[in-house]
Design a protein that fits this description.
Blueprint lengths: L2 H10 L1 H32 L4 H9 L4 H8 L19 H4 L4 H8 L1
């Protein structure tokens, strides 16, 4: 058998053509995922500066504290303002009457 015939037989073999790359992808993906997940656990082990940690603990924002801030706000005078579309000029749109916009675009 010549080398040419062996190469042709290997190219026609579906196991070598599709199966081996699939197995390499599965095994290689497993090793890759192991490395990326190890980064996550290593990052947890890193200690931050104690001064920064104190600042973070002091600046805790809770849902209850934010609710207390806006609890007494009056939303009766609230006005819905439409944002600009990608093809519109934002400077022209803000604060204008919708009827004026309709006449400008038509």
């Amino acid at each position: 058998m010549s080398v040419h015939a062996v190469m042709r037989a290997l190219r026609k073999n579906k196991t070598l053509r599709y199966g081996v790359p699939m197995l390499l992808l599965i095994v290689g993906g497993s090793f890759g995922l192991r490395e990326f997940s190890q980064i996550r656990y290593d990052a947890v082990k890193i200690k931050i500066d104690p001064e920064l940690e104190k600042k973070l603990k002091m600046n805790k924002v809770s849902l209850e504290s934010e609710y207390e801030k806006i609890k007494d706000s009056a939303f009766d005078d609230w006005k819905n303002i439409r944002g600009p579309r990608p093809w519109e000029d934002p400077d022209l749109l803000q604060g204008q009457n919708p009827e004026i916009l309709k006449t400008k675009t038509t």
